From TrEMBL:
Keyword Lipid metabolism appears in the UniProt entry: no
Keyword annotations of the record: Acetylation, Methyltransferase, S-adenosyl-L-methionine, Transferase
Name by which UniProt lists this protein: Methyltransferase like 21E, pseudo
GO molecular function ontology, one term from the record: methyltransferase activity
Any single Pfam family the record assigns to this protein: Methyltransf_16
KW Aminoacyl-tRNA synthetase (keyword) present: no
Gene3D superfamilies, alphabetized: Vaccinia Virus protein VP39 (3.40.50.150)
Highest taxon in the source lineage: Eukaryota
InterPro entries: Methyltransf_16, SAM-dependent_MTases_sf
GO biological process: methylation
Length: 241
């Protein structure tokens, strides 16, 4: 469904598709997959002038780098002036291998990198390997299972995030409501959410509608060839809610 270009003329649609192909090719070229067979699978990524080596595990969703993560890394790199990460307080949810958090850290952010407990070992390994001696602030890896023990582990009074980053966190899992609660819990009025969404099923469109009840959502860019959209969101102010 070409819902992304509803308001564009035929000519504009053609132009946007050409841009899409060009930018997607540029984004995907940042990934280097070795042809050697090694005991631990890894991939190399090129962002903000660094070679970032990511170790993947094949046994769960979060242990591989998804295209949405590349889109978000590319966005952070190419929009570093407008979305300046230097000394900003950033949290990533559903971080997986940690690539996005690594890029945010290399750009100068103070990052809290979160995921389910079983992902944290590999996540910490990738983070340490790619940020030690390279970043102003070393990222902190922390457990965050959506909707679980939020008040204990992330008390609202001490949450002070400038940005929440999220790549490909919405798919057919049973924790969509908990995910929404988590966004809401971590978000203050001034927090900017940068969220990259991969559309796969109708259920995910419904999540966007639910999300819009709590947040002002703005589409920043879309990549129809990947079915991916990058959104910026902020908490609805009391007046507009
Ligand atoms: C499709 S992967 C995306 C990983 C990474 N952001 C990327 O784009 O490469 C989804 C991520 O969400 C995490 N996740 C799934 N359910 C979760 C939950 N209930 N609480 C916290 N994280 C969860 C997974 O562990 C995984 O890292």
């Amino acid at each position: 469904k070409d819902y992304l270009f509803t308001y564009l003329t035929e000519r504009e649609r053609g132009m946007k598709r050409d841009d899409d192909k060009k930018v997607v090719a540029e984004i995907m070229a940042r990934c280097f997959v070795p042809s050697l067979v090694t005991t631990t699978p890894w991939e190399e990524f090129h962002f903000v002038g660094h070679e970032i080596r990511i170790t993947e595990a094949m046994d769960c969703y979060g242990a591989v780098v998804w295209p949405s993560a590349l889109v978000l890394c590319y966005f952070l790199e190419t929009n570093a002036k407008h979305y300046n990460m230097v000394d900003k307080n950033v949290i990533e949810i559903g971080a997986g291998t940690g690539l996005v958090s690594i890029v945010a850290s290399l750009l100068g952010a103070h990052v809290t990198d979160t995921d389910l407990p079983e992902l944290l070992g590999n996540l910490q390994y990738n983070i340490s390997r790619n940020t030690k001696m390279k970043c102003k602030h070393l990222p902190q890896v922390k457990e965050l299972s959506w909707g679980v023990a939020l008040d204990e582990n992330f008390p609202r009074s001490s949450n002070n995030f400038d940005y929440i980053l999220a790549a490909d966190v919405v798919y057919a899992h049973p924790f969509l409501e908990e995910l929404l609660i988590t966004f809401d819990h971590l978000c203050k009025e001034s927090t900017i959410i940068l969220w990259v969404m991969k559309f796969r099923l109708e259920k995910e469109n419904k999540f966007v509608d639910r999300f819009k009840e709590l947040f002002d959502l703005e589409e920043i860019s879309s990549f129809p060839s990947l079915n991916i959209t990058l959104y910026k969101a902020m908490k609805k102010s009391r007046r507009s809610a």
